[in-house]
Automatic annotation (TrEMBL):
<comment type="function">
    <text>Probably acts as a heme chaperone, transferring heme to an unknown acceptor. Binds one molecule of heme per monomer, possibly covalently. Binds 1 [4Fe-4S] cluster. The cluster is coordinated with 3 cysteines and an exchangeable S-adenosyl-L-methionine.</text>
</comment>
<keyword id="KW-0479">Metal-binding</keyword>
<dbReference type="InterPro" id="IPR034505">
    <property type="entry name" value="Coproporphyrinogen-III_oxidase"/>
</dbReference>
<dbReference type="InterPro" id="IPR058240">
    <property type="entry name" value="rSAM_sf"/>
</dbReference>
<keyword id="KW-0949">S-adenosyl-L-methionine</keyword>
<keyword id="KW-0349">Heme</keyword>
<dbReference type="Pfam" id="PF04055">
    <property type="entry name" value="Radical_SAM"/>
</dbReference>
<keyword id="KW-0408">Iron</keyword>
<keyword id="KW-0411">Iron-sulfur</keyword>
<comment type="similarity">
    <text>Belongs to the anaerobic coproporphyrinogen-III oxidase family. HemW subfamily.</text>
</comment>
<keyword id="KW-0004">4Fe-4S</keyword>
<dbReference type="InterPro" id="IPR006638">
    <property type="entry name" value="Elp3/MiaA/NifB-like_rSAM"/>
</dbReference>
<dbReference type="InterPro" id="IPR007197">
    <property type="entry name" value="rSAM"/>
</dbReference>
<protein>
    <recommendedName>
        <fullName>Heme chaperone HemW</fullName>
    </recommendedName>
</protein>
<feature type="domain" description="Radical SAM core">
    <location>
        <begin position="23"/>
        <end position="265"/>
    </location>
</feature>
<keyword id="KW-0963">Cytoplasm</keyword>
<keyword id="KW-0143">Chaperone</keyword>
Length: 411
């Protein structure tokens, strides 16, 4: 289970939005549907997820109907606020959404589409564990309107999967990807690098295996040790080594080089897309994740899910049982809310936009901090050609030191 929810102001029991909220109907709207169930908790994971023994009063078989109750609430709230818009993207995340029957995911998607509508060509993604994707599951999801499957490959090396507490076998990834592609779904594969005991050769083998899958999108995330996880406890006890920052940097550079050579373009620090299956590399980017990075509006459905509309943020109670109880009582499941001030919003905007390929306009940075761009160029962190055109765009070295760039632009 994840750590504590953030502090904030009390959320209204009816979920109503403030009357003075400056809602812009031209801003895209997305939906995130959280499915908080896992068969086994991975040692590195601090997401708000639950195994069967941790549910205590909640049932997986009731979950779709419960979440649809929040969809009905959101429709009412957004209608009252004059903020109802069709969804540009929908993302089923977790947990493992595909632990639920595909028909349950289809019911939730149908409810959201009926409540809000979908723009033409909307992107609808489902995260999946390779063990849970069969041809029948993939066909059912495709028939329901899902367009994209994001498959948690993580590694192709058995001892690395074991270090991450992943239970699938490497060959299951191939069958899951094949099932998704046969159903007409776009496919992304997710990788993690820097696991205890993973060598550069291990990581290279995983990259090569991912490229052999002929997917159109690859994500590669550095392993981060989160407080409260099993892996953090193992490191604290000296049972496994702390990830090596220099090795992780070498792994990132290797991934970028191999992916670029295979025709993949980076568009966010940890994400690459390629032209494939009749779509351009830009079309194969994750539009849902770009909505987060660009500060669009979204409603997060499910326990612990976070939402954002016109600068207002709120988050739901964490446990599935508490979430279900709130909705059964016709109350909002929101646990807290906040409305960041202008300085906080600017900091977040620079933090997020600097991570994507297009970067951020220099004139969005404060005048005092704009003077630091020249130093960032001299240090090889920012592209000089883009800077001349008025944008801060990270170089490869800058991507490795993205946090340092943000500090220079915001301190």
């Amino acid at each position: 289970m994840a750590g504590p929810l953030p502090l904030g102001d009390p959320a209204p029991s009816d979920g109503r939005l403030p009357d003075d909220l400056p809602i812009d109907l031209g801003v895209p709207f997305s939906a995130y549907l959280h499915v908080p169930f896992c068969r086994v908790r991975c040692g590195y994971c601090d997401f708000n997820t639950y195994t069967s023994s941790e549910l205590r009063g909640a049932k997986q078989e009731d979950y779709a109907s419960t979440l649809i109750g929040e969809i009905d609430l959101a429709h009412q709230v957004l209608s009252q606020a004059g903020a109802l818009r069709p969804m540009d993207t929908v993302f089923f995340g977790g947990g493992t959404p595909t632990l639920l029957p595909a028909g349950d995911l289809a019911r939730m998607l149908d409810a959201a589409a009926s409540a809000f509508g979908l723009v033409e060509g909307a992107e609808v993604t489902v995260e999946a564990n390779p063990d849970t994707v069969t041809p029948d599951v993939a066909r059912t999801l495709a028939a329901s309107g899902v367009t994209r499957l994001s498959i948690g490959m993580q590694s192709a090396v058995p001892h690395v999967l074991a270090a991450l507490d992943r239970t699938h076998r490497p060959e299951n990834v191939r069958t899951a990807v094949a099932a998704a592609k046969d159903a007409g779904l776009a496919v992304s594969v997710d990788l993690i690098y820097g696991a205890p005991g993973e060598s550069l050769a291990d990581w290279e083998a995983s990259i090569d295996a991912a490229l052999e899958l002929d997917s159109d999108h690859i994500s590669a995330y550095a392993l981060i040790i989160e407080d409260g996880t099993k892996l953090a406890r193992q490191i604290r006890r000296g049972e496994v080594p702390t990830p090596d920052d220099d090795l992780q940097a070498d792994m990132y550079e290797l991934a970028d080089a191999r992916l670029a050579a295979a025709g993949f373009d980076w568009y966010e620090v940890s994400n690459w897309a390629c032209a494939a299956h009749g779509r351009t590399a830009e079309q194969n980017r994750s539009r849902h994740n770009l909505a987060y990075w660009r500060g669009s509006d979204w409603w997060g459905f499910g326990p612990g899910a976070h939402s954002h509309v016109a600068g207002l943020r709120w988050w739901n109670v964490k446990h599935p049982a508490a979430y279900a109880q709130r909705l059964a009582a016709s109350e909002s499941p929101a646990a807290g809310t906040e409305r960041p001030d202008a300085d906080s919003r600017l900091l977040e905007r620079i933090l997020l936009l600097s991570r994507i390929r297009e970067g951020i306009a220099i004139d969005e940075v404060s005048p005092a901090n704009r003077t630091r761009v020249a130093g960032l160029i001299a240090d090889g962190l920012v592209d000089p050609v883009a800077a001349v055109k008025g944008r801060v765009q990270l170089t490869l070295r800058g991507r490795l030191m993205a946090d340092a760039v943000v500090r220079e632009l915001t301190d």
